[in-house]
Design goal:
The structure holds 2 protein chains of 2 kinds. Chain A has 6 helices and 16 strands. By secondary structure, chain A is of the alpha/beta class. The chains are: A alpha/beta, B alpha/beta. Chains A and B meet through strand 14 of A and strand 5, strand 6 and helix 7 of B. The structure holds flavin-adenine dinucleotide (FAD) and flavin mononucleotide (FMN).
């Protein structure tokens, strides 16, 4: 974890309220791991006052890409930043996803993203594809959930990696109609359930809670990337805790990725 | 050459910049050389482990941070075994913050246990955390403040600092009691009891409804309290509340603070304290003041 002044390379609107930006952070990109995040001081001065946490969306050479949704004042200001401007960045932070699942464990990795929750999963998918040892081992399967077709994120990016992609939308405007966790259930019932060797998920809290239930029911281990209000992001202030079977744990330092079975939902 | 050395009780600090309780951890070493600091104060520990409050525990407000951590800490035994050994390796003066939820005798036990440890330079008595279930804080009652400090004083020969709450009608009354009970110094201020509301779900933004406000939002109040207390007592004051740059620190020193505490700022810019030390030094050079102690309380009124 280091603190750097990162140059904004680009900052573009993807669709609706979703933006993607790239930061030139050579030293930091080198050691980044899927599921880790950056703490970004969006503007000098007191508005916004604290840094804002964002998952590493993917590495592009010496740049780190962030995929973000404008939800409040900080992300609004970020969306107006111009290429060439510098942002104060701390990272890479937290513990990422566990990629070291022995290949003797049969089956595929299933990635489940709800809304902006797909952000850390692209980096994860890239690493999973990269780590694949032979053609015998299938690439990950990605389930993407969105409110509707217009809000859908990253479908093409996952396909380009060679992942099998399934879509769900709340209104049925594309793919499966319903929640992405319902799509996951259908997927696990249709395919032989033993095919899943690991579920990796990120999205809103109720979705992740449902993932925990599914993980237990189908006996497939699951890891989720959690969000909690954060102040420092570096483990100092004890502000961003989540209740686990071993007591309160810091999302920023002990997480943000946790095994679903550890969390008291 | 200018001198930044200050004295707090028996402690000789190489400069007046201290990292405040709850905002310092050893992980900050990844961002700055901790040995350049005047001193560090550890997160408040209690005799027994404390789980802390349920989340959400933090929320941003205008130029401020609202928190309700609730003194989460592993308790004295685990602290001594797991955290203290590496803290003792630091060459920076180490101040241990101690507190209690309901039992005043615990403070005496904590002080006695720590008295035996040579590398511990001082104790800060947190009698002012607003995130506790007690209805009244120790430092909201001048008699109780006197009694508690007096008892702890008898248990320790180390530098004893009383950390006071701003949530009182007259801070000078409490400060005077602390001085009378022979505290060596005062830390001013702890966070201000406050709250924030989410109108979308009509809920408070913190799980505990109220919490403690810190950051630049509270600086004018903290300055006023340091100034008032400086007029009344003659033990050194460690001033804190919203310091974000050297200029802020100098304001506190002008108002009577011998040293300054950096809190919330560490959470945003973990290396900021070093810039503040440099900024204070530059100010002294520019103002042709050789010794920082000449600056303390030199506000022209
Ligand atoms: C580990 C982690 C990774 C994240 N990754 C991404 C990502 O890749 N892309 C993305 O768009 N968002 C991500 N988020 C959420 C993002 O941090 C918040 O959306 C952002 O901080 C909102 O800032 P704001 O100033 O625009 O909103 P505000 O005006 O501050 O608040 C708007 C909303 O955002 C919530 N919020 C505010 N601060 C935080 C915070 N520090 N943590 C969580 N929620 C907060 C508030 O509760 C509120 O609902 C992540 C959060 C965490 C904890
Ligand atoms: C997240 C957080 C945790 C804190 N924990 C403690 C604590 O354990 N003990 C204590 O005496 N003060 C604690 N404080 C108060 C600070 O030490 C300091 O008095 C206060 O925040 C004002 O200074 P600042 O505005 O520079 O942060 C805490 C403050 C924050 C923001």
């Amino acid at each position: 974890m280091i603190q750097v002044k990162a140059k904004l390379i680009y900052n573009k609107k993807i669709k609706n309220n979703y933006f993607c930006c790239a930061l030139f952070v050579e030293k930091l990109a080198y050691s980044a791991y899927p599921g880790q995040f950056l703490q970004i001081k969006i503007d000098n001065g007191y508005t916004p006052f604290l840094r804002r946490p964002f998952s590493i969306h993917r590495l592009k050479g010496k740049n780190i890409e962030i995929l973000y949704e404008v939800v409040g004042k900080g992300t609004e200001i970020l969306s107006k930043k111009k290429p060439g401007e510098y942002l104060d960045v701390i990272g890479p932070l937290g513990n990422g996803f566990n990629l070291n699942i022995p290949y003797s464990v049969a089956g595929i990795s299933i990635l489940v993203g709800g809304g902006i929750g797909v952000a850390p999963l692209l980096f994860l998918a890239e690493r999973l594809v990269h780590n694949r040892q032979s053609k015998v081992h299938r690439g990950p399967c990605v389930l993407i959930g969105a409110k509707n077709k217009r809000e859908l994120l990253c479908e093409k990016e996952f396909q380009d990696l060679g992942c099998e992609v399934r879509i769900s939308t709340d209104d049925g405007s594309k793919g499966f109609k319903g929640k992405v966790t319902d799509l996951l259930k259908v997927f696990l019932q249709k395919t032989n359930q033993r095919q899943g060797r690991m579920i990796y998920a990120c999205g809103p809290r109720p979705m992740l809670k449902e993932i925990a239930v599914i993980s237990q029911k189908y006996s497939i281990p699951a890891e989720v990337c959690l969000e909690e209000h954060m102040a420092c992001g570096i483990g100092v202030c004890l502000g961003c805790v989540v209740n686990t079977k071993r007591g309160y744990k810091r999302v920023c330092k002990d997480g943000p990725v946790f095994k679903t079975e550890e969390i008291i939902w | 050459m200018v001198s930044l050395r200050v004295k707090i009780g028996k402690l000789n600090l190489k400069n007046p910049v201290i990292l405040s309780s709850g905002t310092f951890s050893q992980d900050l070493k990844y961002f700055l050389d901790l040995e350049k600091l005047g001193a560090v104060v550890t997160k408040t520990i209690t005799l027994r482990p404390q789980a802390g409050n349920p989340p959400p525990r933090t929320c941003e407000t205008a130029s401020g941070l609202l928190n309700s951590i609730g003194l989460e800490n592993p308790g004295l035994d685990v602290f001594l075994k797991k955290e203290l050994p590496s803290l003792l390796k630091l060459k920076t003066p180490l101040i241990i913050s101690i507190g209690t939820f309901d039992n005043l005798k615990e403070l005496v036990i904590l002080a006695k246990e720590l008295e035996r440890i040579k590398g511990v330079s001082g104790l800060e008595l947190n009698i002012s955390c607003p995130n506790m279930k007690r209805k009244k804080l120790i430092s909201q009652d001048s008699h109780l403040t006197y009694k508690v400090i007096k008892e702890v004083r008898q248990a320790t020969t180390k530098t004893l600092i009383a950390k006071l709450s701003p949530n009182v009608t007259d801070i000078t009354e409490i400060a005077s009691s602390a001085q009378k009970a022979e505290a060596d110094a005062l830390s001013l201020i702890n966070t201000i009891l406050a709250m924030a509301v989410n109108i979308d779900n009509r809920k408070p933004k913190l799980a505990t409804i109220t919490g403690g406000l810190s950051g630049p939002a509270i600086k004018p109040i903290a300055l006023r309290m340091v100034w008032q207390v400086y007029q009344k007592v003659n033990i050194p004051i460690i001033g804190m509340g919203g310091i974000m740059e050297a200029k802020d620190a100098i304001e506190f020193i002008l108002c009577g603070a011998t040293a300054v505490g950096i809190g919330t700022a560490n959470l945003i810019y973990p290396d900021l304290s070093l810039e503040i030390i440099k900024g204070i030094k530059d100010y002294l050079i520019k103002s042709r003041i050789k010794d920082i102690n000449k600056l303390v309380g030199s506000l022209k009124v």
